[in-house]
Amino acid sequence: MQAIGDDMPDEKPIKKDEWAVVLDFLQHGHYGMERSQPVAQVIGEDYFSLLEVIVREDAQLKLEGRVYIGDGKRDVVKYIRGRIEPRELTAAAKDELPNIIDKIVRGRPQRFVDFFNRSGPLTTRMHSMELLPGIGRKHLWAIIEARKERPFESFEDIKKRVPLLPDPEKLIVRRVMAELDGSDRYRIFTLKLESGRREGRGERGGRF
């Protein structure tokens, strides 16, 4: 488990999730914790941050439930224990991960539709859309030509106007999974897990 250190005055605003979805809830914690206490493994709705959060003793969380993890007053989460890697997820959380990412993508489509509308080249030889699994040059030019006519309005609009992409949502989900696994150095939808000392984000906020 890794966490990021404190802010420096001249740093840019920190990107962090305000809400998260529960992947697994362990009422008595798990092996390796210093003491038994309720803990949940969650994924952020904006940046797909994988986190462990300490839950208040009287709270009961359900899988796929939403919890507030922002800097304001939290009613369920006591504090954020830290970021975790996919390999640190419980077996149940690993099973839930693809399904919950899919629900986040389909439930908040505008951000991802905007990616198809606005993404540009990464290098002189690679376009950022080519980072999506299965997107080759033929797909790329079909998308670019379609968006030149007018911006895409929804996933359904993409499917209708670019027949080569029958399920763009699945491409996004697969890309998010690849980024979380660390199998690609580029980050489109997630935040890089940086090395640093272990520390959580307390009840009044701070970095995780």
Question: Can you walk through the features of this model?
Answer:
The protein is an alpha+beta fold and 208 residues long. The protein folds into 2 domains: 1-85 and 193-208, Nucleic acid-binding proteins (OB fold (Dihydrolipoamide Acetyltransferase, E2P), Beta Barrel), CATH 2.40.50; 106-181, DNA polymerase, domain 1 (Orthogonal Bundle). It has 5 helices and 5 strands, in the order E-E-E-E-E-H-H-H-H-H. The chain has helices spanning 91-107, 109-118, 137-149, 155-161, 168-181; strands at residues 19-26, 39-44, 50-55, 66-68, 77-83. Strands 4-1-2-3-5 form a 5-stranded antiparallel β-sheet. Strand 2 (39-44) and strand 3 (50-55) form a beta hairpin. Helix 1 (91-107) crosses helix 5 (168-181). The longest helix is centred in the middle third of the chain and has 17 residues, at 91-107. Mean pLDDT is 87; it is low at 2-9 and 195-208.
